[in-house]
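Service request form, structural biology core

Requester: graduate student, group of Dr. S.
Request type: structure prediction, single chain
Budget code: on file
Notes: please return the result as structure tokens.

Sequence provided:
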Amino acid sequence: MAQPGSIFCGSADHGLSRRGFLGAAGAATAGTFAADMTRLDGLKNPLLAGQVKRQQKSVILLWLAGGASQFETWDPKPGQSTGGPYSKIKTSANDVHISELLPKMAQRMNHTAIIRSINSKIGDHGGGASLMETGRVKDPGLIYPDIGAIAARELGRADSQVPDYVSMYTSTEGRRKGTSGFLGARYAPMFLSDKQIPDNMRRLEAISDVDHKDRAALRDLLSKRFTKARHSEKINSHTTAYSRVHGLMSSEKLFDIEQEPESVRAKYGPRQFAQQCLIARRLVEAGTPFVKVARAWWDSHGQNFETHRELCADLDHAMSTLLDDLEERGLLENTLVVTLGEFGRTPKINASLGRDHFANAWSCSLSGCGVRGGSFYGKTEPEGNTVADGEVGAAEVFATILEALGIDHEKEYMIGSRPIPLSDFGAKPIKEVLA
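Core staff response, request fulfilled:
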């Protein structure tokens, strides 16, 4: 007899034996799993790998957590009272100079564009990070997706067996994990806070392969029964996310840099940030649309110059190695590498020889996919206190990133009857840095 509220009538005609159910559902699940494994293994085939490279666009966001100084990176002001002790150096691009702390990147400016005129106006870690990652000010009635979730939604494949959005982070200001906002759980990031290989990706040895498939099939049956009489975007999003579990489990090796030849690992070196950049390359090569790699501790309220000497050396090595690796593998033309943080640092040097939070005139960089390498946009006045020309905000940076990826920044998502464009209303991409 059917139970009240049940969608199963209880009739023998609609019954299904455990063996019959597990045979059919298990076969379907196994088929999906096998297809996922075949697809990952197929990346070893040069022809298939080449096709993926040509078609799949990706983003690697190098997040400079805490807020890097524009003076010690992309917009040096030597000789000014605000400039600090470091000089500027010539680059491989005519008329583009950057800090002497980035000598390797200076030789790779032909791949890179600099935006030097950001006025994002929000100078606290949480608010600044949210603004730069979503491209707009928070709305009390709506949680906006960040750039990673939008890239996952627009560039990801429905049948993908690799994660669409991976965020690698260490303990630092804000502890931001990223958010898929109103796009739902399907586009939420896989967040790695203290390990480079995700937990719980591997089937427990105590569970046999048959039992593992049976459990997945049972969950699929119960999920379909539950959702049949309930229509909800949240439920659908969670169901879709769960359905990808088998495929994601097959991608575990992508996070293991020991799979790389010793010669490649040696180029990146032993430091965590560089190794995470190597993982990011492995992920985008396999088809992951968005990877965020964070380098912590740029919040240099004290000893700014010593801090940036160390951190810029780390950034310079990791970023230049990553760009070279992407180019050698034919991936750079379809991979956008972005450096970004919450804000910049103050022109004024404080009593602790540090620079404080500063959102009124700072810089970021774009390299690779869709970018006019060797270019720069905007200008700050001689001491770097204000934007002198080409002022842009977070929305324009956001729109520029989308445009570089070939995504229509004016495309709208409908939230009920409310249209929400991908970039904020009225935002225009910065055409001067786009190819």
